[in-house]
Amino acid sequence: MExxxxxSSIFGPDVTHDQSRLDMSxxxxxxxAEQSASTLPGEIWRWRAVDIAxxxxxxxxxxxxxxxxxxxxxxxxxxxxxxxxxxxxxxxLETAKQADALLxxxxxxxxxxxxxxxxxxxxxxxAGEATTNGNPAYADxxxxxxxxxxxxxxxxxxxxxxxxxxxxxxxxxxxENPLYGRTLxxxxxxxxxxxxxxxxxxxVATGMCALAHGTDIAGSIRYPAYVNGVVGLRTTPGRVPxxxxxxxxxxxxxxxxxxxxxxxRSVADVLLGLRAMTAADTRDATWxxxxxxxxxxxxxxxxxxxxxxxxxxxxxxIKAALLEAANALAAAGYIxxxxxxxxxxxxxxxxxxxxxxxxxxxxxxxxxxxxxPDVKRFIRSMADCAPAVDLGGYVQAIARxxxxxxxxxxxxGRYPIALLPVSCCLPLxxxxxxxxxxxxxxxxxxxxxxxxxAALGLPGISAPMGFSGGLPxxxxxxxxxxRELRLLTAASVIERHTGGMSALDYGAV
Length: 509
Description:
Blueprint: E1 2-4, H1 24-30, H2 49-57, H3 63-81, E2 84-86, H4 89-105, E3 117-121, H5 148-155, E4 159-164, E5 176-177, E6 181-182, H6 198-205, E7 211-216, H7 222-228, E8 231-234, H8 252-257, E9 259-264, H9 267-277, E10 302-305, H10 316-331, E11 335-338, H11 344-359, H12 363-368, H13 373-385, H14 391-414, E12 417-420, H15 437-446, H16 448-455, E13 460-468, E14 471-478, H17 484-498
Parallel strand pairs: 3-4, 3-7, 10-11, 10-12
Antiparallel strand pairs: 1-11, 2-4, 5-6, 7-9, 8-9, 8-13, 12-14, 13-14
Helix pairs in contact: 3-4, 9-17, 11-14, 11-16, 13-15
């Protein structure tokens, strides 16, 4: 392994021994809210979630005023971008009024997201609304109750301002469907808005909400965050409860690889969303009562710099972003070593053998009935790229997953953080997933940093680094299970270096 310490010139200036640990109080100072509304932007919809929550609690702004500001922003730009495809405004207004009343009568009962507007992805349940998941066949599938994560967000005081768009079955890196149409990327309309949490990423990037909910089984939080220039955290499966009343059962792939998490314009907001989402719900048999905080969350640990991905070519712009992120981390005391990750291609093979085998029991045939030739083509192409396994092969894939996870456990023992691409390519143009089977194989290889880490059930965060040729560029950080705060600490270092970025200046239609 090639090692670079903090004294290595390409990774910034020398760092003293005292700086090798980022104490928790320093992290919290970085992530705290502004102290006064006078220091915040004049338009409320530009405020961070942490600032909205703080100013609502301070009674310097009401929940109704916050909601109305975001409604005006949505009315201004959503007709063009199409990120929010359903909204119950009467319910949101009533929620805001009740939240203001609670502050007057029992302010101590206000939750950490009190009055904060957020979007919820169309693939989880909101009571009384259709959980369409972008599929016309589910247009009348009305949720009888809230999903676990929605219960948690409501209990934290959040106000659901709308439902964010998805591709059918939430199974593309491009967000469009026959029910609601295409969600556009605010930076460039010819570039994908990402998927499957494309509506979530666009809504929060452009100030239509302060926080967005997403899900991720192959990069569906991290990739939309990457192409829209926001922060997206895929949590460890089991960290956020995933019970959905409209779903009677989940196959093994969803249980072990799918995760939920927040998307936001800042690391501080992601942390706030994470804390709200993780409350217990034993209706989800896979929910884990795992502690969130560890004593070494803010330690400047050894980082594996992974800028070569087997089976694909990392484009120069992504390599440059990885090097810049490594410099920023080294300047904060992290030790950077170039390293080779354990068997990424085999991890992707395991994902394909499990997830695409399960897809043959329903999703592939259901895709044929959506009336969407693109999703039908993509899902069938994904299936064609996957190994054709029988029951024995499926069982072997599950066993291999355990072996690969053990290798990654050892790797993350040596390198508590892995710094690697989100994707090996710059954000893709629309239709890049609709080519030949061979072209789909190339795409899968380019997205393998997303797929492999999901296959093993690891948490990961997409951190924006700036732009290349007018397109957002970012990096991914991965850690061991349930070490989300370690990721957030490192991401906050990168955010401080870059100064952050957002699409808040996206103009009115």
